[in-house]
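Feature request, filed as a ticket because there's no other form

It would be nice if the structure record came with a short human-readable summary line next to the tokens. Right now we just get the raw output. Example of a typical job, pasted below so the devs can see what we mean:
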Amino acid sequence: MSSKAVAHDANADTFATLADFTLELSPEAIPASARERAALMLLDTLGICAAAAPMEAGVLGRRAALLLHASSDPGHSARMLFDGRSVSLAGAAYAAATQTDNLDGHDGYNPTKGHIGVVAVPALAVLAEQLPDLSGPEVLAALIVGYEVAGRAGIALHATVSDYHTSGAWNALGVAAMAARLRRQTPAMLREALGIAEYHGPRSQMMREIATPTMLHDGSGWGALVGMSAAILAENGFTGSPAITVEAANVAPHWADLGRFWQIEHQYVKPYPVCRWAHAAIDAARELALGHAFAADHIEKIRIRSFDYAVQLFPTMPDTTSKAQYSLPFAVATMLVQGHIGLDHISGEGLADPKVAALVGRTVMEASERHQARFPAGRWADVEITLADGRVLASGDTHARGGPERPFGRDEVVAKYKSFAVPALGEARAQGLCDAVLALTEAGSRFDAVARHLYDPL
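Raw output as currently delivered:
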């Protein structure tokens, strides 16, 4: 057999495995630990989506969906999350992903250097609008399909191109896979949809957004839009296959563990609504503050060492929420002054806190070869704080909390959800949503118990 024929067979095998996993995976074949984690990731992301709804980017995203992505076909429309107005499936997915992406508190996956739940959760909610009898186990299976497909597409894309692209470039494939499963598409439709999603996925420049933070964030609004649009196009006969991040011979190893290694169990949960690259330094500063008695106004100097991308985050006092979410010295200073970081600290008066501004001006950042060598598998930093009395407090190497290296338990994820959801939804609605989501792991549960909390405007 020729080498070309062998490559073709490998490509066919990879797609056949992906199609079988996407379209035929039984909820019962998924480990209970993966299903439980999926429910927690769903809850965590919905909390961020709810808190983000009143933010300017969320309002603008939903307005754009109404103006640009309406639909007169009931079979291809859905209500926008925490809004209630109806637009197209693609428009509703775009709106929810855009508002979630602009409150940078959603989950992520280290090997992809990006985020999956930000599109997978909106896609699930949008597609479920057409499926009133959707069972809890099937909800979690569809969500897991999105995570597993998107994660491997992201790893494959990073491994085969030189540019650092945003998550929207690859998480669109996870949305297309979820749509194929929940809309009962054929393998042929799925193949075309993956190709369309990959081709049109926003290959946007992540480091441009780091240098000049705006509402563009991680490109995930457009990733959701592209993924859902690709699925509908393929359903109607539009062609676009193959997706080379799936079918190229050199990416086959990235798909070899599909259905055996569950990436959903290895997502990190963010304790703070800022870029994950800043979290290791935040946690290092937090632990110094907890372990030593000092006031923020007694700090003479802060020295942060981390990996290259982290120290390229916005270096001065931010004047917008977008800049605040991508500013390493601001995040560390806020933790030292306030003791935590919430939505109120990255918006409004939090952007003009004089004590935080003073510490930002006393912060020095350095790239560390030691921390760089462990990226992207880990997010490491160390912090030194020099006090007015001459003491120098050193954190030592610190990894960000919330991921597999320093995991959060169920109660910690729920507490984080409530810290964002309760101010937005009120205690009763937030608790009802929490109970309904966590119950999805139980036999006999249905998504409509979740849906009743999702669409009413805030």
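Something like this underneath would help us a lot:
DSSP finds 21 helices and seven strands in the chain.
Confidence is low (pLDDT under 50) at residues 1-8.
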